[in-house]
Every structure is written in C-alpha cells, then in structure tokens.
Inverse folding.
C-alpha cells in the first residue's frame, strides 16, 4: 500500500523550523542556547492591538468571518496602500489570510500549471521553491550577487527566463540577504513581465525595514504597467510583531483575488477572527510601532556587521533591509576542513549552543543566515561565542 503522496518527494521540510526544533531540544536539556535562527521580531505585539484581540474574544467575536476578511480590515489595508503607493486600491482587491505563507501558497496554486517554470531570485526564502513544486511548477533560480549587495536585477531575470516561464517571484527586502529592489529595477522587471506575459508575485513582508537612505521600490507603484499581472503580498507578522496571530494579506485584481479565495476556502478558510480585530487596531492605532522596531534593528545591525566583519574566515555584505545578516563562511569552512555551511551550523549549535541557519536552505551553500531580531545582550554573547568558535577552528588547523 502506498503510504504517502509522491509529490512529497519533491519538497524538503523547512530548515528554519528544523533548526528551531533542535535548539528547543537543547534548551530542554538545560543548554543556554543563543538563537540567531528565528525569523520573527523579539518585540511584543503593540498593546493596543493585543487589547483589541482580547476585546474580540470577550465580546464573542470568535466565529467565522467572511473568508476574504472582515470588511473594515480590508478597507483599512486598501486605504493604507492607496496612500503609500499613490495608486487607487479598492477593498475588493484585498484578500486577508492566515499569514503571508498561506497567501503565497494560494497564489502559487491559483497561477501555476504543472510544467510551468517559475523564476525565483536567489538566495531565496526557504518556502518559495517548495510551494512552486507542490503546485506542479519548476523553480528556475535568478542569481543575485554579494558584490552587488544582493540587489535584484532585471537583466539577470531576463537571462533566466525560459519559454515555459509563467510566474516571477520577487522578495524585497529579501529574506535572507537583506537585498533590495531599486525603483529602476522594479520598473524594468514590470516592463519585462508585460513583454513576456508573466505574473509577478511580490512578497514585501519586510517592506518597512529598510536602513538609511537605501532605495527600495514597491511593485504597487508600477500597477499601471503591470495591470492584472501583479499579486502583492505582505503580513502583520514582521511589521507589527504579530507572528502568532497569523494575519497576512494580498492585493490583486478582483478576478485573481477571487481565484486565491477559492483556494483559501478549501484550506484555512480565513484568518482567525480575533486576530483580524487585532490587526485592524494595529493599523489604526499603532502605526508608529514599525518605526520603533526599525530604530532598534538599525542599532543591532551595526553591532552584528562590526562583529562579523572582524571574524576570521568570514566575509559580510552589510544588509540594507529586513533583519538578517548573511555572512559568507566559505573561507572559514575551507581553512578548517569543514565540508559545508550545513555542517558548520550543526557544529556551532552542538559545541557553542548558537543556532543559525545554513545557506543551503536558501540556495546559497557556504553562507549562514543570522537573525538580529533578538536582544543586544544575546547578540553580544552569541557573536562572542561564534568568534571564539571560528578562532579555535583555525587554530586547530594551524597548530
């Protein structure tokens, strides 16, 4: 008897969740684990949003809502992005779901036919290729370069396109690299999408976390070029520290949103009712929260960049967005005789109780992802452990 679907043979479990599980196991054994693997803010949800969620529970707002989301939240999202992008967005174009991940999966299932090629900028968020595979598509990777700041480039995309390419997935600011999408590149990608009749799925989950005067574009500003080809996706998880509340959303033409809603109606049905009320309060009453988090991330970023750039065998391009550093550890691995960044991560966790994510998970062997969405105390301690670990590896080789 066949026990499992053959489609599962095409995908791999999430490396980030696997590392979290191993770190949690060590904690249960009494180890003092410094976790640089978590892709979530260490801040609390804004109090006004949390209280709105509690009020929803206490008032009995705990039943099904419209599968597309409550009207007030959809309208608030539409109003925010109309003001932000200068492009008129109607609430009918907004779909609210149980986090950004299921929204992205609904988009993949709504757009991708078996055999379609899907262009994905690389390094990439871990779930993009596997969502494409589960929808029957073939991931085709578009490289970005560290010496270019991992900037997303239209020229690289054009080179990677095939006759079977149907969809382009863009993630900027990028998880894991912090790479950005300059306005000129966004416009060029939009025009290329029209030329080649491509859908653009733009994951802008980290949209508000951009450092200094770096230039970051939103594809919403290019809807006049893209027309119905754009699916914009974001989430309350990062911008309002609401990962556990599970509220994400998309903005797309009504016909596309309806198709995604059809998928969602047979999957998660809706975002949790009380979470939608909390998200609405976050938009209306806690709009300053992302800026406060960004200021803290900027300070932590400087600390991480300084420490990693001084670490032996490690090279780092300073991230310009999101809240991750993506150091190149190929020299360290080569000099220490360690075969992969995956093995380096395993040893770092086992020997120093520091959890990181190997670059293999993001299509970038030889790199590590380090989240600085944690306290400065943890950063100081974890980076000191990492520096000592690297120094000991290299000392062992040269002794």
């Amino acid at each position: 008897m066949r026990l499992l679907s053959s489609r599962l043979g095409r995908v791999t479990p999430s490396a980030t969740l696997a590392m979290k599980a191993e770190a949690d196991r060590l904690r249960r054994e009494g180890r003092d684990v410094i976790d640089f693997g978590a892709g979530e803010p260490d801040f609390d949800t804004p109090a006004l949003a949390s209280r709105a969620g509690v009020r929803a529970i206490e008032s009995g707002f705990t039943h099904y809502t419209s599968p597309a989301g409550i009207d007030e939240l959809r309208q608030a999202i539409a109003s925010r992005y109309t003001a932000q992008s200068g492009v008129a967005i109607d609430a009918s174009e907004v779909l609210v779901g149980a986090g950004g991940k299921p929204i992205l999966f609904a988009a993949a299932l709504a757009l991708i036919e078996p055999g379609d090629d899907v262009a994905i900028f690389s390094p990439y968020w871990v779930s993009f290729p596997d969502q494409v595979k589960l929808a029957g598509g073939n991931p085709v990777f578009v490289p970005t370069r560290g010496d270019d700041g991992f900037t997303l480039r239209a020229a690289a995309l054009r080179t990677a396109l095939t006759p079977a390419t149907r969809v382009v997935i863009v993630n900027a600011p990028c998880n894991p690299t912090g790479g950005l999408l300059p306005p000129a590149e966004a416009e060029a990608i939009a025009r290329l999408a029209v030329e080649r009749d491509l859908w653009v799925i733009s994951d802008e989950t980290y949209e508000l976390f951009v450092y200094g005067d770096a230039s970051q574009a939103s594809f919403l500003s290019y809807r006049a070029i893209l027309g119905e080809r754009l699916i914009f996706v974001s989430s309350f998880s990062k911008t309002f520290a609401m990962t556990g509340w599970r509220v994400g959303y998309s903005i797309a033409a009504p016909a596309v949103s309806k198709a995604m809603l059809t998928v969602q109606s047979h999957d998660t049905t809706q975002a949790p009712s009380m979470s939608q009320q909390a998200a609405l309060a976050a938009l209306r009453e806690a709009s300053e929260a992302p800026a406060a988090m960004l200021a803290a991330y900027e300070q932590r970023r400087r600390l991480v960049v300084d420490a990693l750039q001084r670490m032996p065998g490690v090279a780092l391009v300073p991230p310009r967005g999101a809240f991750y550093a993506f150091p190149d550890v190929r020299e360290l691995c080569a000099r220490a005789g360690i075969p992969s960044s995956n093995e380096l991560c395993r040893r770092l966790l086992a020997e120093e109780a520091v959890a990181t994510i190997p670059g293999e998970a993001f299509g970038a062997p030889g790199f590590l992802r380090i989240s600085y969405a944690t306290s400065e105390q943890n950063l100081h301690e974890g980076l000191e452990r990492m520096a000592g670990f690297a120094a000991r590896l290299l000392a062992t080789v040269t002794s």
Remarks:
- The chain has a mean pLDDT of 95.
- The first strand starts at residue 34 and ends at 35.
